[in-house]
Amino acid sequence: MDYLRQVEFLANRLVATAYDEGWEVLEPSADAGPVALALREIAMVLQHFHFDGDGCLDDESRLRDVAGVLVLRPEAMPPTADYTYEQVCAGLYLKPQPGGWAIWNTWTRSRKRCALVLNDPHTTEGLLLAWEHGRAIWPAEPLKGQVARVVSGWVGPMVWHPHHAERIILGPAGSGA
User: Which terminus of the chain is more solvent-facing, meaning fewer CB atoms within 10 Å of its CB: N or C?
Assistant: First the structure.
């Protein structure tokens, strides 16, 4: 679902940018090329009838800038770790649950590091799969009911978002800085 939201977000931005640049998006000229015609098709699709739960972005949806994520599960703890799933949960003041937890390392509005602990790791697993396949998508802002706790600072080790891994870990042009 987050992938589809990302695609819709980008398509809306593409159409808005085309309008801003003076393109005749909905009524291209008779000699319009394939890009203009494809843009018209995108704009037409984005104008379809919306309903609650259709998976499309609403006016209040925002994408969340995450530095990285991790999934905590009883069966997914590193075999060489000096801690157990239960100990990690206790350290985060969480009740261990069989389905596990997801953690999104992100920032507050004032750009301080924080971690959002989510009660359902499925979206995070989807993010990880997308990142593994080279798609640097951003997740939609989680619903309040999905956030179990907000922790000051970051929890790790995490899988870095591809954008931030390149910027923070590799530095400019892969310099290692």
Answer: C
